Amino acid sequence: MASIAVKELCKTYKGAAEATLKGLTFTFPEGKIGGLLGPNGAGKTTTISILCGLVRADSGEVMIHGLPQDAGHREDIKKIIGIVPQQIALYPQLSAVENLTYFGNLYGLKGKALFNRIMHYLEVFGLEKAAYKEIHKYSGGMKRRANIIAAILHEPDLLILDEPTAGVDVQSRSMILQFLRRYNEQGASILYTSHLLEEAQSLCDEVVIMDEGKMILQGKPEQMINELPECRNLEDVFLHYTGHALRD
Amino acid sequence: MLRLLATIRKEWQLLLRDKTGLTLLFVMPVVLITVMALIQDAPFKDYQDVKFDILTVDNDHGRLGKYIREGLASGGQFNIIDTLEGQAVTEKQARELVNSGRYKISIIVPTGSTAAIVSNANRIVNEITQRMGMSVSLPVKKEADSLNVVIYFDPAAKKAFKGAIHQALDNFLTQVETDMLLDRIRQQLRNKDVQAQPADTLPIRLQAVGLKEHATGNSKQLDVVSNSVQHNVPAWSIFAMFFIVIPIAGNMIREREDGSLLRMKLIPGSYLLILAGKMLFFVGICLLQFYLMMLVGIYAMPLLDLPKLVMGHDQAAALLVASAIGLAATAYGILIGTLFKTPNQALNFGAISIVILSAVGGIWIPLEVMPANMQVIGRLSPLSWGLDAINDIYLRNGDIGLVWKNVLRLVLTGGVMLAVAGFVEKRRMN
């Protein structure tokens, strides 16, 4: 079964001169790490917002683990997905434990079980010593790691990450990628967006390159590179299909 | 339930760490009500407790001058001053001292004014007795005098103050003239009845209908006198409760900016429950603010030589009103937090709009003293509904029957603001 299936997705925001999504279609298999890649303005964030149910598409179909993303299934889908937004979606004035307890409670988790799970993940992400430190006192990398924990407390089957390693140091990036691989090995599907194509090449089983609201290419990174003799890596493939023109 | 309680706990944790917010919610209102009560204490006392010095120049040395001096002194509101440095005050001195503002008022009783009153009374008695066929001729002046008791007011004196003094003096003059007339009639009747003993007095009671103040409320206790504390403590507490708009709007915009709102919406379950938790928490904070201010009114104000706050009889109704005010204030904060995109926009608009709503709503000065058009506008302000309802309970000893309309207005307004915020948020998603 497909983890994510998107068919002919269209979206035009009110007042916008041009459509953001123009019939986007792609599929990611379950249990794999998928990459959604594209230049700025390609429509990645809108696609993720539609996948999560935050934004409604004008037309097209979205299926998450076999469930249609519509009003009747939105709550069921929320239960099986975890989202790591690009922003640090945590309260800066609260400590990691306080933030994670609050979001855990919203997921229906509570008591000792929740506390143990929080402490476990803080340890996994190397934040156990800063557990009671306020988030605004964290470094950029620590914030990114705490941001991921908030999305996996309920241990979702599908984890969607929007540029999870933006602005972090090499050590933090390495540990985040290691964790994603381990989490995937436990059976979870992962959809990931990034501008760091080297990272995507090493992490993703399959990538979708999109531009101007449409899917340009989908496949395994090695396969894409091999199909174009002049390309040595995923970045070359990306530039081959999306061009060198600067984007706003 | 877990979502609700978790949200209340989270808001509590956030507020505890927000030192500026805590100061704004609890310290600023205490300072505000104290300063305002102290500043406005004197104006409120103008016609209640303050004693005024009145310079009197009695050129008459008769019954009228004595009556005016005794009458004014008996009210307890005036100190009669007729000598300065051991010398009788002159008219010129009095005029200059009042004009310079050292005294608010001076009364000059002209020479011969008692004689003029006596002559007028005699003339009336002569007329009456002649028409009754009696031959009585009391001495009268050939021409009726035209004398005036002169009043000098400090040019800065208020119109209401002048009116009150005019009325009081007019009453004294009427009283003296009536007394003189009755005295003459009594004398003539005694002369006609030769059997009567000289000491015999004829009881003539003029006041068949008197004046007595009664309570307007259900309680037999007289209504509480409106004073600086009775006005300022509830009024500025309501103002402070509405200032909760600032932390709520700031909190909501920060949640939107840092993505916590996004995360909350991505979590299964109703966002309305999270919003309800937020509202419950802030309504609770409003109530805490309100009762903290009332405690200041009861226990701290008397320490500053101000009157003690009186809270009326129906505390359940007061709690209901305070909750309704808290609900409207919280809903307004949520609306502002939803409509505006940056904390600066929200904070500026929120603060200025509350100042305007409070100014037109009778928080600064009572609605009754505003022009008619402003009163109509003022009665549309939720702050005026809140203050009206609190005054109904505190000043008029009212109960739920007297305040339910204002409570309903506050709750409905809160509901409408929440509905608009919900609509805007839903539109934003698309």
TrEMBL record, chain B:
Presence of the UniProt keyword Cell membrane in the record: yes
Membrane topology (UniProt): Multi-pass membrane protein
Pfam families registered for this protein in UniProt: ABC2_membrane_3
Domain of life assignment: Bacteria
Subcellular location: Cell membrane
Keywords: Cell membrane, Membrane, Transmembrane, Transmembrane helix
Residues covered by the ABC-2 type transporter transmembrane domain: 22-421
InterPro entries xrefs: ABC-2_transporter_component, ABC2_TM
Regions that span the bilayer: 21-39, 233-250, 271-296, 316-340, 347-367, 407-424
Principal subcellular localisation of the protein: membrane
PANTHER family registered for this protein in UniProt: MEMBRANE COMPONENT OF ABC TRANSPORTER YHHJ-RELATED, TRANSPORT PERMEASE PROTEIN
Protein's name according to its UniProt entry: ABC transporter permease
Organism: Chitinophaga qingshengii
Species classification: Bacteria, Pseudomonadati, Bacteroidota, Chitinophagia, Chitinophagales
